[in-house]
Write a structure and sequence with these properties.
single chain, 426 residues, conserved putative lor/sdh protein from methanococcus maripaludis s2 fold, 3 domains, 6-stranded antiparallel barrel, 5-stranded mixed beta sheet, 4 helices
Length: 426
């Protein structure tokens, strides 16, 4: 009896456990089922408005002096002294003596010419007296008629007067040659190159050095044909009274980590388009390049390569969009009232580095349209999006097509999230 109980009891327990597991599996609760809502892409939108747009044309150029000259002597001689400013990089003022040539020979020539002038004065006075005496003798001799010019010594008087004028000219020339022994600066500027030094003998025409004026600097800037359509250049024919003021120019250059800026304007335009680059060069003039009127700031150096921005025309009542909104294919993405996207071909009138300008009418866009600001890889017409327009988030609404299933038994399933974002149709 005990043996039978010991054998049957485990079997009864195992059977009961198996039966209980069977009932648990058969009667398990069935989970609720639902169809998830369609995925909606979130984008940023902006309402298109018209406004004025100032065009700035970017270009580059090299700095050159407006006035450059080669210093040449007009007299011969040995250089006796040189100004400390007559060195490469030295600054000088207008009429400053840069170097002096030996004066002794020219001082002697001036003394000689003055002595010749004194003799010429004496000769004129003698001829004047002789002429008066000849006229008096003619009357005393009782001769009738008018005496001839030769009797009155008029030719001799004219010769003496001519010699007097020549002597005056010799004195003036000697005085000029003496003054020219001091080589003076023709303008306020800076020495670019020094070619002579103290003790060197120079003759008329010998190059002493090169200098340039520091009142203005010039920058030749190339403009393409497209850029020329957006800027008014100062071009007139001969003596035309109407003169267009040149556009403003901002020149920028870097010195290490520092950046300096200068203001100027376009003063003239080349007469022909460059055949190699097919560009037209304009010349911008920069006033006070060495910052003499300012307390600080870096000077504008000759030969410096600078970036320039030319102020162009002001486009009125146009549509301006970021460049990122225009696709490579020349299309933009618009968002309609149903929060659906549509690809729209557009035609611009100006493309800048960061912005594209369209006409108010005729460019494929209209004021009031909503432009998609978020780049989309594969936009398909009619695709619904969740757009935040002008910073206003979309309204929250239930999307149709969500089916809920009822589970069997007493099990409970979690409540699914049945709400999603989308623009409410208006």
């Amino acid at each position: 009896m005990k043996l039978l109980l010991r054998i049957s009891l485990p079997i009864i327990i195992l059977g009961a456990s198996a039966f209980g597991a069977y009932l648990f599996v058969v009667n398990k609760p069935e989970p609720r089922t639902f169809t998830p809502p369609p995925e909606v892409t979130k984008v940023e939108g902006k309402t298109i408005e018209a406004r004025d747009y100032q065009i700035y044309l970017k270009t580059r150029g090299t700095v050159t002096p407006r006035t450059t000259t080669t210093l040449l002597p007009q007299v011969n001689g040995r250089i006796m002294s040189i100004s400390p400013n007559f060195r490469e990089g030295g600054f000088f003022e207008k009429d400053e003596i840069l170097l002096s040539i030996e004066k002794l020979d020219y001082e002697t020539a001036l003394v000689v010419s003055k002595s010749q002038l004194a003799l010429a004065y004496r000769a004129v006075e003698e001829e004047r007296v002789k002429g008066q005496q000849a006229a008096e003798n003619w009357r005393r001799l009782g001769k009738r008629g008018t005496p001839s010019d030769l009797v009155l010594r008029k030719p001799q008087m004219a010769e003496a007067e001519a010699l007097l004028e020549a002597a005056k000219a010799d004195v003036e020339k000697a005085q000029r040659d003496l003054e020219r022994t001091d080589i003076r600066a023709p303008f306020a500027g800076r020495i670019l190159e020094q070619m002579v030094d103290v003790g060197q003998y120079v003759s008329s025409g010998t190059q002493l050095g090169k200098a340039f004026a520091t009142d203005f600097m010039e920058v030749r800037l190339p403009l393409t044909n497209k850029q020329l359509g957006f800027v008014d250049l100062p071009e007139t024919f001969r003596d035309d009274e109407f003169q267009v003021k040149g556009p403003e120019v901002t020149v920028t250059a870097k010195f290490g980590q520092n950046e300096s800026t200068w203001k100027g304007e376009v003063v003239r335009v080349d007469s022909a388009i460059d055949e190699s680059t097919r560009q037209l060069f304009v010349v911008a003039q920069i006033e006070d390049p060495y910052r003499r009127k300012e307390a600080d700031g870096a000077p504008l150096k000759i030969g410096m390569y600078v970036d320039a921005v030319v102020k162009g025309r002001n486009l009125e009542d146009v549509i301006v969009l970021p460049s990122s909104t225009v696709r490579v294919s020349g299309e933009v993405i618009l968002i309609n009232e149903k929060s659906e996207i549509n690809r729209q071909e557009v035609s611009s009138i100006y493309k800048g580095a960061k912005e594209v300008v369209f006409p108010r009418e005729g460019g494929g866009l209209s004021v009031g349209d909503v432009i998609c600001m978020t780049p989309l890889a594969y936009p398909v017409n009619g695709t619904r999006v969740s757009a935040t327009i002008d910073g206003v988030p979309p309204t929250v609404e239930k999307l149709p097509g969500i089916r809920m299933g009822k589970g069997k038994g007493k099990g409970k399933a979690g409540k699914p999230n049945t709400e999603t974002g989308g623009n409410k149709s208006s």
